[in-house]
Amino acid sequence: MYDLFVRLKSLFGTLLPGKGGAFGVYDVVNRMLIAMNAHDLDAVLRCYAPGAVVIGPEMEAGEPGEIASYMLQMWDGFPDLRFTLWETITLADAVATEMTAAGTHTGPYLVAGGDILAPTGRGLNVRVSWFWHLEDGLIQSQRFYYDQLEIYAQLGLRLPLCFGDEGTGSGAPADRG
Question: According to DSSP H, which parts of the chain are helical?
Answer without folding.
Answer: 2-12, 27-38, 41-45, 64-77, 148-154
